[in-house]
């Protein structure tokens, strides 16, 4: 029966997997609107199965929590190791109780399980609130309500203004006559601007539930995928004999989580539900990042595991050497039988396991819990820091991943975006150039700006009639070629926008701040964009006349084309194609116009750091327009390769343009961006700027932000240069240039901070980078371009990468990560195009900017402004690394001190596996007696005042390259622990050897000996931490001295009371008897002093002979501290009394 059931189960699983595989192979889905079958003969009705609209963000259920959580916890090597030790103690006769390993292990497991269970309960609670909310659905011509989780694909949903969409919907109709609706996607990508979505022509007229219920249509679309901005599909509407087919794109798709704005209501059909919505697909977990400290910790753990095994092997072998002497074998009353004497191998293995159990405390399981708590609690100091609070945004720093706190102190390369990161992304229209004539939005007379000016002025010469016509055409082009929305009045946070001097005026909003700046600039120059109504775009010209243009087509902007276009029909019937975009994408398509004058002005503005766009147009005949419509319709209806076909259609349409002019918009540098970059340079970090902007604009920003200095020698690796020389020659020439000056100097020496060295800066563009990453197969001399490129970059103080695609940004970060030095990288950006490099870098930081919140969502940390990066790295990162490196080394040190006397004790007890310490001491040493002081140290220690860390960025170099967790330092801590253990054990041993040790003539037993060693141990490791503490508060005093008091009180109670739940009480009166002896007090003091003295002497001599920069500043600060003042650890931390310089 069991075999039969097993076979049936396996067959069922195989069948289900096969079915799932077949379903996943289907790359499209068919949705029947309102669950109506298509008319007979139209197509086969195949009802596909889709998930319901239930959102599940929780990880566990009531039934699988215990097994799933236990499986995840015991996948950790340390937890699994201690589980094995615990099981060994249960199975065989071991010298210590299973409680000594089981209690710490289960404490760790239970605390972690409670924490994770509570977090998952909160997720369940949030899921239930979302899934139980009511939504309105059209059924049988009426609107009814149902729970959100019961929505299915094909349901027609009714959504009112200010409501969120319950699933991903295709817009069928809206309250607006043109079938559009306005939506904000702040919960998805952080963009608060209003985006316009469209219904298809054939369904937008259905305004009531009865009419919507009559829609007979199907939708063919792609299977769900996480890209928020991509969607492909077709809608087939059955209105007669032949179905009408219309293409669907992202502007027809309303995403779950977005909110309906400025539209009374909409009707939409559910197309993706539940965990298949784009929002749910985007909230999946990121790949786990591991810090350099964690890798060091695991390496140390392996070393200590080897030491543990070595100890067990040595003691097992010595035990049998000891017992080889008949006089030392088992006594006569415990003699072994003949069969037992022959089972040498089994006995040896059980003895080996027993010694493993006896010495297993050298592996500190509690260290993992302490590290987790330190990271979790320490992350709040970043979030509570008032200096990292931005009043303008009302935002604080956010920690998404506390596992990487210490990595902030190890950064060697910083990769930063430009727009919105180094700059404000707050655009201001500066000027425009039409046919070589420059226009500014103020009257300029004889070089003087007239106050209150609202007109325009031609700086060069007054235009003639023909120039006036082209000028107005240019202004009209900028008023028409955009996706800006107009609002008469907008209230945000109680402030009314769009009202000027008591009069209602237009207020522009757009997903692109550039477009708003351009439209507002045209308004200041006399042409005001009013609105888009019923497909008509309205403009108010200089004569206060309203001009109307019918909007026929919008060729949307994309990062590949780097331009956008509109096709409009004027009131006189003329057809125009207006196009605006980057100069590199417009100039190759221009056939006439004053190219040279405009190009010169564009280059001049780019050098000044202004963002430039070029504007061109083309008149279309009715026949050409028909061809355009045919091209676009055919491309959009093609389901396969739709994006490619649409791009080809756009390419054919946007040709033979006439150049009108160019615009210049300023994106100001962020506050203190230059100071931040300069501080990062001084700290030894290399800063790279990765941007999609043109080279001239990006280079100007780099000079303004002090990434490049005026003395910097710029090396160019651009397409322009590789056209003149081969890539091979350019790379080798640049390599010879930098190596000639630097030779074999270290990278630190070539940081460019000293004037005696030539400071190099490299500029590379996206096209050349692609050639470097993937050299041409035909080039036989290509060699290893990537290595040569890396060698050049290593010898440059700063690198600018312009014209970068998002994927190229990630490739650069990955290339540096995987180089032979394996440096720690940090990527910082504010837009969706920065997400790839943020995820790729060791540490990813998002900025709460104006390009959405995708970067913030996908980052490890988020900060309001770029200037906050300085404190994040130089202060918080520095402190976190110092603290956790001490924590890790101290844990291994105190466990060596703890367990090495146990190893030495075996030489004096015949290797009988007799424990030196009592069970209670074994259990509580790492849990209670020594855990809190190091946890508090790792949260609050400040070896240098934070103001000094900000003023002296070079201090960051003292902790670079994981310098506090190197093997020499690890060996020093281990040797120190062995020395202290030897002093404690043999010091107590030789004092015990004196029979006059006790004042009353009594002899101390082995438990008194062990208690004496343990007492010296607890006091020594605690005093060692106190000596290492530089920053004292009342909490430090309370915890450090309180832990010692707790140990003494516990020992008194543990040995002073007969506990009824214990079968035997070997520690009864032992501690009191030991303290009643005067020599015991003296020995404790002497042994503690002898243990600590070498470390103190070493520090004194080391600081005197080879002081680090940090130690010099500590000494200087100590000498200059004269007046006590009250300061704070952090803005919201515990106040302490600290002496600061006058």
Description:
The chain has 36 helices and 43 strands. The termini are far apart. With 1142 residues, it is an alpha+beta fold. Among the domains are: 151-282, Calcium-transporting ATPase, cytoplasmic transduction domain A (Distorted Sandwich), CATH 2.70.150.10; 398-422 and 670-741 and 759-772 and 783-863, HAD superfamily/HAD-like (Rossmann fold); 426-443 and 468-486 and 505-668, 3-Layer(aba) Sandwich (Calcium-transporting ATPase, cytoplasmic domain N); 875-1103, no CATH class. β30 and β31 form a beta hairpin. Residues 1-25, 443-462, 490-504, 744-755, 777-783 and 1122-1142 have low confidence and may be disordered. 44% of the residues lie in helices and 20% in strands. Strands 16, 17, 20, 27, 28, 29, 30, 31, 32, 33 and 34 form an 11-stranded mixed beta sheet that branches. Mg(2+) binds at residues 417, 419, 830, 834.
Please describe the structure with a list of short key phrases separated by commas or semicolons.
43 strands, Calcium-transporting ATPase, cytoplasmic transduction domain A, P-type_ATPase_N, Rossmann fold, transmembrane, eleven-stranded mixed sheet, disordered C terminus, disordered N terminus, cell membrane, 1142 residues
Number of helices: 36
Number of separate strands: 43
User: Sheet bearing the most strands, described?
Assistant: 11 strands, mixed
* Assembly annotation: single chain
Organism: Poecilia latipinna (sailfin molly)
GO cellular component, one term: early endosome
GO molecular function, one term: ATP hydrolysis activity
Family: Belongs to the cation transport ATPase (P-type) (TC 3.A.3) family. Type IV subfamily.
